[in-house]
Amino acid sequence: MRSAVAAVVALLLLSAVAALVAPGKASGENPKLFATVGPGATIIVRDAAGNRVTHVDPGTYDIVVDDLAEEHNFHLSGPGFDRFTSVEGTGTETWTVDLKDGVYRYVCDPHKTVMNGSFTVGSGAPPPPPPPAAAPKKLTGTVGPGYTISLRTGGGAPVKTLKAGTYAITVRDRARTHNFHLVGSGVNRRTGVAYTGTAKVWTVKVGKGSLRWLCDPHKLRMRGSAKVG
């Protein structure tokens, strides 16, 4: 009788030790991946060490999605999974995903041609690293002094036509009575009327149509436009 009781106690102790040493799935913990979109035109999935993810083993993962930009979203799709954050919202959320053999792709829906990536799961070679993104073309917007407003190329020429695409625009506001307001397809940015100085660079994706710049208090006499094709 004593030997039977001792055997039961020993079995219980071994079970408890095993649970403490290797909690793994028993604790509900899954391996983590970290997805980030923004700021700017950036989107990536990294592992816990900070490396870009190109290939993982099949299994259940917790993907921590950090959406840092109101003009972008994070959209992940692949075998058995399709989920995305909102374009307007920002914040952090965690998705529990059962990753299966195949290719998983992630994009920013409004800018999928320039903001995208992928990784493979299980069998198959990992995808090649994405080519470096082309640097956006530079423009300079200036308002003031006096009743002047302009948008110029990096070489200083007045902008009259543009190709649709991504631009980095440095805005110089030199008057407390004016502002610089840029409006176009997918673009609506402005400085404050009382603000003066060099605004941080605006990285904007300009769609086809027209691009207009104006001073809101004096839009009838301080304005310009360019055709975007």
Report the uncertain regions. 8-12, 16-27
* Cα end-to-end separation: 90 Å
Estimate the mean pLDDT confidence.
Answer: 87
Largest sheet, order of strands side by side?
A: 3-9-8-5-6
Shape: elongated
Helix content: under 10%
Rg over alpha carbons: 27 Å
User: How many separate domains make up the residues?
Assistant: 2
Describe it.
The strands form four sheets. The chain has a five-stranded mixed β-sheet with strand order 3-9-8-5-6, with no helix packed on it. Strands 10, 11, 13, 16 and 17 form a five-stranded mixed β-sheet that branches. The protein has a five-stranded mixed β-sheet with strand order 12-19-18-14-15, with no helix packed on it. 9% of the residues lie in helices and 44% in strands. It has one helix at 2-21, and strands at residues 32-37, 43-46, 55-56, 59-67, 75-78, 81-84, 91-99, 102-107, 116-121, 137-143, 149-153, 161-162, 165-173, 181-184, 187-190, 197-198, 202-206, 209-214, 223-228. The protein contains one helix and 19 strands. The chain has 229 residues and is mainly beta. Strand 14 and strand 15 (187-190) form a beta hairpin. It has two domains: 29-121, Cupredoxins -  blue copper proteins (Immunoglobulin-like, Sandwich); 137-228, Immunoglobulin-like (Sandwich).
